Amino acid sequence: MHIAAVLGGGEDLAEAYRNRLMCAIDSFVQLYGSGREIAIFSAPGRTELGGNHTDHQRGHVLAASINLDVIAVVARREDTTIRVHSEGFPEDEISLEELEPVTDKKPTAAELIRGIAARFKQYGCPLETGFDAYTTSQVMAGSGLSSSAAFEVLLGNICNALYAENRFTPVELAQMGQYAENVYFQKPCGLMDQMASSVGGAVAIDFANPMLPAVHPVAFDFSRTGYVLCIVDTGGNHADLTAEYAAIPAEMQEVAKYFGKDVLAEVPSAQVLRSIPELRKACGDRAVLRAMHFYREDGRAQGESDALDRGDFEAFLHLVQNSGQSSYCLLQNVYPSSAPEDQPISIALAVGSAVLGGRGAIRVHGGGFGGSTGICAGCAAVPVSGGYGIRSGKGLLSRAANSFRWRHDCIDIR
Fold first, then answer.
1. What is the per-residue pLDDT across 140-193, written as a single tens digit (0 to 9) for each?
2. Which of 25, 127, 172, 256 sits in a 20 to 30 Å window from 75, CA-based?
3. What would the pLDDT profile of 150-163 be if each residue is shown by its tens digit?
4. 339 versus 332: which is more confidently predicted?
5. Rounded distance, CA 328 to CA 248, Å?
């Protein structure tokens, strides 16, 4: 298949991608030597269209892979060492003979590598030799585009090819990535990010059975709507806010446990509403509000998928806008509770709604929070033919399935 068809763009995009691959190969050779048989792997970032923090409660999400990816140039070694050099970062090195989690220090990318390798070994794959890999990524860390999930899926694809003759499915590779992030990186993420990156395309996912999620491809051409999907750089970063992120599933599960269940999907919403006075005392107000967000957001994610299936884009936008309000008011993942004076996502949501004037939708994208450094993302659909985008921090990125383009008519809110 022609590379332009794979990327969903024209010859200019294809040529840029070829050049990127050649530069990555050159960098690999400089680091690890020439004359070796190499293989190239890729895993995309993802955008969350619906279902903000519903996956870890076995709910529904709507997500899509994007054409920003992380690529790897890989060659086998003759010993049991794995070395991964990611552009802009120090090299990570692990031994296939030492695959237990390292718990006495802050986890790094090495733990993700170790976790993925360990999972393949647990499944009976012979890990006889390691590999060298050079990676370069367009999926910005902390952007809400799931750079960690893309990296995990990339590692899964590498190990699947080298150690398992590609017998594991995209869903199984996503589950391996979640395992590495939960157990080795010590971050209690759901499965949505890894699934969207591994399965690819636009997908509606039902996590009622987390071991066998139901995946429904959504065949909708966004390019025909006259809208683009924008990732707004608010100048914040959720990369180092694991405690804030972890509190969301923990508080939702606390409400579920009040009823003797593990996750909110197992508790009828009416039962929660009837028990609000008792839940406020037992779990706290924020946990109750976050539980209410789950039920409403879970229904919205299903409604968004249904709207796209029947071609009702206006209904989809309405649900997206309501999702943003719910994340803001109920889920409360717009800014960290420890830094209320720093609210770049709140500013982006407020200004974005004013700029759109009802002609689009804007919502929290990904895990949320922000307010440290680097990038955090809000998600907005804005008309192609008029109006403005929003810029804060490092600018505005406009990338959407079947409609990839940059926008430059931005309001600066820095």
1. 776 667 889 999 999 999 999 999 999 999 999 999 999 999 999 988 887 888
2. 172
3. 999 999 999 999 99
4. 332
5. 13
How far, in whole angstroms, is CA 378 from its chain's centroid? 13
Per-residue pLDDT averaged across 200-222, rounded? 90
On whether the pTM is more than 0.90, the answer is no
Compute the Cα dihedral for 8, 86, 345, 321 and give only its sign.
positive
Instruction: Check residue 223 and report its DSSP letter.
Output: G
pLDDT digits (tens, 9 = 90+) for 255-270: 999 999 999 999 999 9
Rg from Cα positions in the chain: 21
Q: In this structure, what token pair is assigned to residue 38?
A: 């190499």
Assigned token pair, 280: 């406020």
Give the residue-averaged pLDDT of 50-75.
Answer: 93
